[in-house]
Amino acid sequence: KKQYEQAEMTNAQLEKEKSDLFFKVNKLRETVEGLCSLLSETHKKYDEAMK
Fold it and tell me: Could you tell me the CA-to-CA distances from 12 to 7, 18, 23 in Å, in that order?
């Protein structure tokens, strides 16, 4: 019974870590998408300035 309870606790901890990591990955994805947009906009402005 004790092993089962430990396994349940470990499983709950892993599920929480998984949830936390998904949240962090989504935040990073949003950041990268924002930076890509900013870079693209900067390239366009540079190209216009060099005409």
Answer: 9, 10, 17
Classify residue 51: in a domain, yes or no.
yes
Q: Tell whether 14 is covered by a domain.
A: no
Domains identified in the chain, total number: 1
CA 17 to chain centre: 13
Residue 11 lies in a domain: no
pLDDT at position 8: 96
How many angstroms separate the CA atoms of 19 and 16, rounded?
Answer: 5
Would you tell me how many other CB atoms lie within 10 Å of the CB of residue 39?
10
pLDDT in tens, 15-47: 999 999 999 999 999 999 999 999 999 999 999
Torsions phi, psi of 28, nearest 5? Answer: -65, -40
